[in-house]
Amino acid sequence: MISNDRLNRSRIFYFSLFFFFISIFSFLIFVLKDLVLPIILGILAAYISLPGVNYLKRKGIPKSLAIVILLGVFSLVVFVIGQKIVSAIPNEKENLELRVQLQYKLDQNFLALLDKTDYSSEGNFLDDLVGDELYQIFQGLNSFLVFNKHESSEFKKYIKKSMISERTLFFYNENLKHPFLSTPNSKSNKLDENTANKSKTKSASKIALFLDAISIWIILPFIFIFVLIDEGEIKSFFLGIVPNRYFEMAFTTFSNVDVAIGNYLRGTLLQSSLVGLVIFIGLTIIGFKIQAALLIGIIAGISNAIPFLGPVIGLGTGLIYAMIVEGINPIIPFIPANPIVGVLIVVVIAQFLDNAVFQPIVLGKAVNLHPLVVVIGVTGGSIIAGFWGMLLAIPTIVIFKVVISTVYRQAKAYYIIY
Amino acid sequence: MEDSIKIKSLWKDISKELLTGQKQTIVDILKTIPLLKDLSKRELKVISKFAYERSFEANEFVFEAGQPGAAMFIIKEGEIKIVKKSDNDEYLEIAVLQSGDIFGELALLDSSPRSAGALASKPTKAIAIFREDLNGLLKTHPEIGGKIMMHLAIITGQRLKTTTNHVIQMENEINKLKEQLNDKQ
Asked: Nearest residue on chain A to B54, judged by CA atoms?
């Protein structure tokens, strides 16, 4: 038997080592917090592509070549989609035009919803019932769209240079007629100046920002490659520091967690991709431009990983586009020409397929979380790290759940706990 | 003085390990065991990536009876006793294994509880190979996994034959004893 003296020394040694590494690790995470997201995404991408590498290996392709092929495919997909997205994102002039158009359409749709000809006239029952409340929401939406002083003068410059189409000019003039929208928002001029200054500094340091982002994100492909190249060395290292008594248990826990989390992450990715694909195809069928349909499909697909809120984000993006889009030509004749109805139908179909087909087949009941945990998790995630926090909250909770339940089960099986 | 010698020898061990590479030694050991005798050096190198070397103190359990089996062990150096607890809580020695011997190999087939415990009777180094890794190997390198499984089946079959012979022998002895008892009566 090992002497007590030695056992105590070992304990002190391992505890000191543990605290030393934990402190260094926490310090590094705090200092290098900008690198955390690219590293996590790199590891996730590698983890998700692991079966792909194994598949190529089985087909007789060397591992290094398989990794290069996968990295190439990833880069190509990101590049093509990125290019499509960038070309779909409006520049400053298009952005102002879109806002004018959206403002006009929002105005029209709001009046049509309440069956009013103008703001002073009597509306339908909806107007009597919740007219004031709806007007508050409408005003809130409009405050995002109204030009500040700087933007107003910029837009006027474009008009002078005759760079604005007649139709947008018509929308602009119509918006000016509206009492609420005619004057720039009643917020103080200071705010206007602030935004103007902000946009100036933004354009001046765009290159610096771009280089900054590139230098941080350049780590992602390296993480991807090195995690995939690993031949079990990472696992070996961690198992190497586990005491003999917990060795078999640690290995079993490690592989069970690996299988469960791998299946969950790959399942979620597949599910989100399928939802995105259905929305992309649906929007193309109802007559959206391919670029717009792709962009909305990607946003809806990614945000679909956020429970409850995800479908709302997808629907919202689709509806905003539906409000400003003109000249819709549905591919199939019997489809309603109203794009808002079209978007609603497409999103409902996508959500139905997601809940009835994709989720049960792809994810099964492997990781059932209580709705309360999901809601608190997503909200907490958004407070901690914004959009990325919301997106990664559920996978993080699932990982913790799988690790804790597996460790508990194994510790019992190996007589370590009662 | 003694301390400086200890540190020097520790450094020598570390540098030796770094320069020569530990995996090579594992391949050499794997080559000697019957379960892996049909594998080429290249194939053994693949397996060495999943081989975990562990050191056990004298009187330390490698595994205990009743625990779920996850790995097979190969003795690199030292001695292992296969033991089983008797009704009066004493350990009965079933077998004594030396370097090159394997034990716990049934864990490569399923996770059913270990039928007996394995206790290091001397400071022992053993190499562990896990069922999950072998299952993975069957997918990525079916030819290697297939060979191991084939030999595992042969070894299990041989052990079953030996056990059957033992049972027959014991039955014969019991019958003889019964006859002797009847004769005496």
From this structure: A244
Chain B contact set for A57 (CB, 8 A): 140
pLDDT tens-digit map of A157-166: 888 877 777 7
Give me the sheet containing B52-56, strands edge to edge. Answer: B52-56, B124-130, B71-77, B102-103
CB B182 within 8 A of CB B67: no
Does the complex come out with an ipTM higher than 0.85? no
Residue matched to tokens 């992309």: A280
Q: Do B70 and A232 touch (CB under 8 A)?
A: no
Architecture of domain B2-184: Sandwich (2.60)
Closest CB to A415: pick one of B67, B70, B139: B67
How far, in Å, CA of A329 to CA of A327, rounded?
Answer: 6
Q: Structural domain boundaries of chain B? A: 2-184
Q: How confident is the model at residue A195 (pLDDT cuts 50, 70, 90)?
A: very low
A410 within 8 A of A249, measured Cβ to Cβ? yes
Residues of A in contact with B68 (CB under 8 A): 248, 252, 413-414
Q: Is the dihedral of CA A379, A381, A386, A390 positive or negative?
A: negative
A152 CB within 8 Å of a chain B CB: no
Nearby residues of A303 by Cβ (< 8 Å), 6 or more positions away? A309, A310, A311, A313, A314, A391
Contact list, A239 vs chain B (CB under 8 Å): 52
- Rounded to the nearest integer, the mean pLDDT of chain B is 85
**Close Cβ partners of B50 (under 8 Å, ≥ 6 residues apart):** A232, B129, B130, B133, B134, B136, B137
